[in-house]
Amino acid sequence: MTTTPESKPRIALLFAGGTIGMLSDHNTGALSPAHDAEALLNTVPELKSRIDLTLIQLFNIDSSNMAPSHWSKIAETIAEHYDDFDGFVVTQGTDTMAYSAAATSFVLQNLGKPVVFTGSLIPMSELGADGRNNLIYACLVASLNLGEVAIVFGNKILRGNRTVKNHESFVDVFHSPCFPLLGEIERPIHLDEWRKRRHDNPISVHPGFNSNIQLITLFPGLAPKVIDSVIDSGAQAIIIQGFGPGNVPFLDNSIIPQIKRATSQKIPVIITSQMEKSVTNLHAYEAGYKALEAGAIGAVDMTLSAAVSKTMWTLAQTDIYSDRLMKLTANIAGELSVD
């Protein structure tokens, strides 16, 4: 990024809804999307002296309604305007922010500029709103030496595809269970050395998502026919949240035959852990190794939101089963650790 004393960083603010842009109904107290995203800019007038901010309104929805089509719109808009701005900020709801950030990181590869997601727990129109500071700091981070998708919330700067929503409170809303923070909001803002940095190399855009996947959370006594029904439904990939480091039942209620059936039909089976801070290791126990022998692959230390969005993205990139497995186990955008 090149700026002069007279110039300011050019930041695009992509408005995608969420609490940060909601208003409270005076009668019911329920929150619903506001109609004027321009009001966001009016709450942070001090940014005008530091940032050349351009608003791009994408949509205004509760993030519970966010879908892969919305992820595509976010990524495609950034790609379209990539050369016009020094950084990008995306405001959306917190509930599915980690999914959106992870998805964006897979589409926009070799990213050389910051793409920063942020939002709030309290609408900007209410007293005590957290969104004002979040928006200010997200814009400032988007002007720094960062070259990846991040989430800025509270005093944390997190890698987008390593983040999970932890709490619906002001304390520790988001955290990164298996990867260190990219930085912290201090005076001045601190960025750690392991972050990805800005560069001028061309971005590589790989759009598309296929949401024909199923997520199954194991519990003691789960009927194997549940997985049979998923296979019969035509799902193109199955994510299984196993026990511990990725263990699955192989005696009573064994699901090993179902895993074999799926993989024999070239349906990827990805095993994750129900433990948030865990590394899936299918070699650790017999209960995991039998899944591995049946053709399943481990999600390593990916978050669930990264595993879901990466699986959808992978299905849209290739129809070749071996290539799908290769992408699912590769480190595409810093979402998993490799030896």
Automatic annotation (TrEMBL):
Keywords: Hydrolase. SMART domains: Asparaginase (SM00870). Substrate binds at residues 63, 94-95. The active site is at 19 (o-isoaspartyl threonine intermediate). PROSITE patterns: ASN_GLN_ASE_3. Residues 10-191 form the L-asparaginase N-terminal domain. Residues 212-319 form the Asparaginase/glutaminase C-terminal domain. GO terms for biological process: amino acid metabolic process. InterPro entries: AsnA_fam (IPR006033), Asp/glu_Ase-like_sf (IPR036152), Asparaginase/glutaminase-like (IPR006034), Asparaginase_C (IPR040919), L-asparaginase_C (IPR027473), L-asparaginase_I (IPR041725), L-asparaginase_N (IPR027474), L-asparaginase_N_sf (IPR037152). GO terms for molecular function: asparaginase activity. PANTHER family: 60 KDA LYSOPHOSPHOLIPASE, L-ASPARAGINASE. Belongs to the asparaginase 1 family. This is Asparaginase. It comes from Candidatus Kerfeldbacteria bacterium CG15_BIG_FIL_POST_REV_8_21_14_020_45_12. The lineage of its organism: Bacteria, Candidatus Kerfeldiibacteriota.
